[in-house]
Amino acid sequence: MSGKGAKGLITGKSSAPNKDKDKDKKKPVSRSSRADLQGGYWEIYKPQLSLIVLLFAGLFHLSVADIGMVAQYKPPYLPTACSGNDPSVFPSSNLFAAAGEAEWDNGNACGRRYLVRCISAPTPGTCKSGQTIQITIVDRAQTSVSRSSRDGAVLVLSTIAFAVIANPSAPWVNIEFTQF
């Protein structure tokens, strides 16, 4: 075999330019065409947009707390729906509560702990600003020995717990509460 074709077959080289080499070279790609190839502008500006969203979120107070009305109840506190006549369920701080029907959860509320803070009341100045308490559920409001100062409360606080967050002469206040 002779000629150009024969030489290429013998040496394994072809005389045609190597097209694979051109494919391996990266061509410059503009930012806009890169964005089109990678799923749009979101991919390019994702870090900047995420930062902006976080900054705006920081301007607003996001809360996972519930809001409801709380009343108070006075001694005697025993027996309770959670523990009968066992006084060991009461925290030493005396910051405890009976659960209203919305929170009772068929008795599963027993022992739950909540952070509670007064947010408003019918009489201005009733709430003690900056006071948040940690309470433990020890009873069911509907069946407690002592009656609540108001029906329909989400929680019914002991007189001591109520006095920490609000003026004790108030029969009820609105609260923000969070289970933890």
Residue-averaged pLDDT, rounded?
Answer: 83
Helix % is 25-40%
Largest sheet: 6 strands, mixed, barrel
The number of distinct β-strands equals 6
Beta content comes to 15-25%
Counting copies of identical and different chains, the oligomeric state is single chain
Distance between the termini: 89 Å
Categorize the overall geometry.
elongated
Give the class from helix and strand content and strand pairing: alpha/beta
User: How many DSSP H or I helices?
Assistant: 6
Read across the widest sheet, the strand sequence of neighbours is 1-5-2-4-3-6
**Rg over C-alpha atoms, rounded to the nearest angstrom:** 35 Å
The helix/strand order is HHHHEEHEEEHE
Poorly predicted spans: none
Could you explain how this protein is built, in words?
- The protein has about 180 residues and is α/β, with parallel strands linked by helices.
- It has six helices and six strands; from the N terminus they run H-H-H-H-E-E-H-E-E-E-H-E.
- It has helices spanning about 5-10, 20-25, 30-35, 40-60, 100-105, 160-165; strands at about 65-75, 95-100, 115-120, 130-140, 155-160, 170-180.
- A six-stranded mixed β-barrel has the order 1-5-2-4-3-6.
- The longest helix has 19 residues, at about 40-60.
